[in-house]
């Protein structure tokens, strides 16, 4: 597709806020320039954007939170993407997000992708053989002209020789004889994010299989997801443990043991239990001791306590979930929080937890194991995204507090009003939450975020937040309205702001 035959769809719009943030010299032609720059394709998945220009997001390659010098609102730092793709980016760096999202597209286009297919697609000149020379004490592997030597060890149980070495990925092959495993995209994504931030904590496993004339094939039978994740990150080498020509039955038995371990600790296992406080972990450990090592669910843990202690433990467990959200490293509002009232900050951490996080957290106990609480992980992720959306609307690049009795700009004034305790109780509990609940069955009203949101619900959540943050109410100087926003009586605020309700919010969203 060339620039000359591209036309900008009528449905593709730029928000006034984004246009105003652009340098003045870029504003007039910004809409056309961005569409031409994208060539009508999503920058994240590289698939065509909707022909009518709808559901297209404009976002920053280098995030604004990185600082003005690193993430400016300029055309060169903006991209277009499907709204669904941009949501999947979350807080990932742009280049990593694009690789992961394109990998997901590739995986979903043909379910049950094998590791062999990963090598064929992502590793040019893959599946190569190596030259090797093995003695009792060391091994030399030749990767082309690159020779590497490692110490050789002997496993006392099987008398199998093994060694450790970093290996160029183009020399790795899929061991379909012993591990015909398919690649699970979600697991690769999780590992890619982890390995981008932290080192790979243990090597994967390969067989070194001689094929004659001093040549061998390196067949990976364990850790294919790890290797795939590292390949997506652009790494050319991965750490490996090599077994020298072991018997296939032995490796098959080892694979079975690994898979049994995975069943005990599933690939989707979360860190929720590890992050809970000592009291909860001790109670969970006591439960495991009394129940053959089985990790309790939230319900089982509380019900296992003496009757007079159940209410207190239930409260403590739910407070743990709330503070896990506060402590989430991706929560961007944390830099705007203070421990106690301080006009340099828009709110305290206590206000954030009790007034914003708590009403969004499911207060029912769930019947899922604490060490595999995908529901709580999902809930935390969605709430973090929602608060980040609020932060972007109200604080990022706008919060500029001044000394007491000094005049502040309108954006700082609006943020101060928005985060008043009385204001939060009004816009969140009386307006946003009821508007969201209208999209759920009544029995799910208390469990809004424990399952991933579909595109419709996600779009409404983000749209509702954008609308609420844009209200003129936050600019008021009327004394009665100011007093209402500072109060803890939502009915008083509703009376003084009659044009704002959960019904009007839904209507305004639908009219966009």
Please tell me about this protein's structure.
This protein has about 500 residues and is α+β, with helices and mostly antiparallel strands. About 45% of the residues lie in helices and about 15% in strands. It has helices at about 15-20, 25, 30-40, 85-90, 95-110, 115-120, 185-195, 225-230, 250-265, 270-275, 280-290, 300-305, 305-325, 350-360, 375-395, 410-420, 420-435, 455-470, 480-485, 490-495, 500-510, and strands at about 55-60, 80, 130-135, 140-145, 145-150, 155, 160-170, 170-175, 205-210, 215-220, 235-245, 335-340, 345-350. α7 (about 185-195) packs across α8 (about 225-230) and α18 crosses α21 (about 500-510). The radius of gyration is 27 Å and the shape is globular. Residues about 260-270 have low confidence and may be disordered.
Q: How many strands in all?
A: 13
Cα shape:
globular
Unreliable residue stretches:
260-270
* Radius of gyration over C-alpha positions, nearest whole angstrom: 27 Å
What's the short story on this structure?
The chain has 512 residues and is α+β, with helices and mostly antiparallel strands. The chain has 21 helices and 13 strands.
